[in-house]
Amino acid sequence: MLYRTLAILALFAASAASAHPQIELKGVSGPLADNIELYLDRLPAKNNLGSRRFQTKVIEDVKQAARAVGYYRINIEPSLVGKDNKQKLRLTITPGEAVRLKSVKVEILGEAATDPEFTKLVKQIGPKVNHRVHHGRYEEIKNQLNSLALRRGYFQARFVKQELSVAPRLLQGFIHIQFDSGPRYHFGEVSFEGSQIREERLRSMLPFKPGDYYQSSQLGELNQDLAETNWFRSIDVTVDDPENVEQQLAVKVKVEPQIRNIVETGLGYSTDLGPRIKLNWNKPWLNDRGHSLSSKMALSGPEQTVEAGYKWPKKNVTEDFYKLNFGIKNKDLEDTRSQEYNTALERHWLLEDAWYRTASLRWLYEDYVQGTDSGSANLIMPGISFSRSWDSGGSMPSKASRYLIGTEVSDPAWGSDSSFVRLRSRVGWIGSFSDDQRYLLRVDAGAVLMEAITELPPSLRFFAGGDNSIRGYSYESIAPVDAEGSLLGARYLATAAVEYQHRVSGNWWAAAFFDAGSAWNDKADIYRGVGLGVRWASPVGPIRIDLAWGLDVPSNQALQLHFSLGPEL
């Protein structure tokens, strides 16, 4: 006898379902048992187990479920076990040998025949000869072909043939799929409506040009790039009806300008700096060339900062721009008293491998007292940095990485007070063992190449300790000290953190961590910290509370409570 395709639930056979409370399975396990339970779970919770009609229905459902995953010679023996209200229908099942594919033909016709994405799809998830017949996977390859066709612009795609045949006596299955993609559509002309920004600026963000093959992902990329400029409060990207006989899809972009002034205020707290007040004032667009202005103020007991930045994009708006920054910072923390004045001109590029390159020229003037050392510094520092970050999305992503490496150089040849090279790097990774288990690794390092650290202002020296450094120690409390025991600051820095997190419930996680490192001049004395913490994936980002124990300080100073809000890397 020859069987045709079944309408089945086998696509979900890999996920276990709860068994029917009145039915007990014996003799099966794994995907076959899972799929049988999926079928039986659809039955009413209460049934007349001794009814021949009910038992016939159950046996037919089991056979359907078994055929869906390739078992056509299944034998089922029903029997009643238990007494009264604890009685169950036991199904003793002998699956028999599975039917395997003797022949598989998945043919791509039309323009997609030479499209490498279709070749890749069929190779990755397409059924193979000698695989067990599985109706769900057969349906999946068809669904994936349709989905890929829509994403890549084959709007006239159709199945010429879609057949799964089974010869149970021979234990053989046969698949023959012919998928005709038809012609592939192209992007047509792009029009913009409602924009306050020059059109050439917007066109520089187009990831395609008229005549290119259609890809839905590029429409999403355009939408995202427009949103990241912060020039618009709403963005709507649409395309023509795909019935266009010329296979040209005109793209229409309708936007509404962002308001010209955005003011944000907030209160915060961290164990590093204590209570803090923030005020941000941003002008997302100043003119039709897309220039913007940002400014922020943060006030806490130990630190007060005021910063402003003026940004103007080049031709490629999102990947190439200049930025002029100005900042004032007053600091009174531990043994440091300083006033900083910074001005920097930066040029930003997004490179082809997703790294950001930033070239800068920074002027720093700083008056300071660091322990028993005091003075002022006037420095001009050209620099360059490279950074790249990625995450899988969400407040607490399952996977993420961040890389940053940079250097600044100072020399009297161009008017600086001193000569040095300062190197700085920070890398971090987040990964997952499962949906409920995450890990975090972080390494932070820096070095200043110069003769004497006392020639350097405190903002360029290194200190360790605190929420994002070595937990179990107060903020910037680890560094070499002078003859009177006051913190001096260091030429070198190296810290590392290892953290394990386990989901307790919903968005709540428990964490255990170990931190280690030092800030030093001649010889590194390693400081270690261990502890436990709580993580909450809040709507505004991860909130972290840690109770840490410093292993290398007097016991009366060892216990530290750390609180922080924001990205983990």
Q: Could you describe the 3D structure shown?
A:
The protein is 14% helix and 47% strand. It folds into four domains: 23-95, Roll (Ubiquitin-like (UB roll)), CATH 3.10.20.310; 100-180, membrane protein fhac (Ubiquitin-like (UB roll)), CATH 3.10.20; 186-257, Ubiquitin-like (UB roll), CATH 3.10.20.310; 332-565, membrane protein fhac: a member of the omp85/tpsb transporter family (Porin). The radius of gyration is 33 Å and the shape is globular. Mean pLDDT is 90; it is low at 1-18. It has a 16-stranded antiparallel β-sheet. The protein has helices spanning 30-40, 52-68, 116-125, 135-151, 199-203, 216-228, 555-558; strands at 23-26, 75-81, 88-94, 100-109, 158-167, 172-180, 186-193, 232-239, 248-257, 262-270, 274-283, 292-300, 303-313, 320-333, 336-350, 356-370, 373-391, 400-410, 420-434, 437-449, 492-505, 508-520, 527-538, 541-550, 559-565. The protein is mostly beta strands and 569 residues long. Helix 3 runs antiparallel to helix 4 (135-151). 28% of the residues are buried. It is built from seven helices and 25 strands.
